[in-house]
Fold this protein.
Amino acid sequence: MNDAEKAAWLSSRCGKLTASRMYQVLDMTSKGAEGAKRKALKIELLAERITGDTVPHFVNSFMQWGIDQEPAAKSAYELATGRLISACGFFDHPEIADFGATPDGLIPGGVIEFKCPATTTHVGWLLAGGVPEQHRPQILAQLACTGREHAVFVSFDPRVRDPRKQLHIVEWTPGREEIEAIEEHARKFLAEVEAMFEQLTEKA
């Protein structure tokens, strides 16, 4: 992605709830109160709406490793499966305003999400099998926004000596009710953000 493409992508996301932040929407305490991550996301979206600029995020060395390894992960997946990945941009939800997603790629009938984590995390996912719980909200939101029904989750770690264990590929077709539940969470959260935005603009 060149600088112009990145700028356009950031602009398309500004002030919106995106799939990668969906886990924060679900941050609630055991007593049903709003968690700190959910509150922080509201403030961030409000800041973006009143400035028109995206809030920058700190990228640590582990995150940069994942970013740098994604092209290799895609190549390894295509080689292992014979499936080609189609590049894609930002998808706005067809019905819910200010809700969107950018999958890592598209496959026939579905979306694909890549993670290139620390080796300890990768090994844990290999042992557990399935799609990790912390990444399900993101993928469900991607399916909701793209209108697709099937997802593939891939964890990739080229540091693992055995090539057969470098890729952890999970096929997932969630129930429609799971996608609808995510959509309902998005609607509720965005309604709260909109009410806060109106409060800010009225005071101004």
Remarks:
- The beta strands are 17-18, 91-92, 99-101, 105-107, 110-115, 150-156, 167-172.
- The radius of gyration is 18 Å.
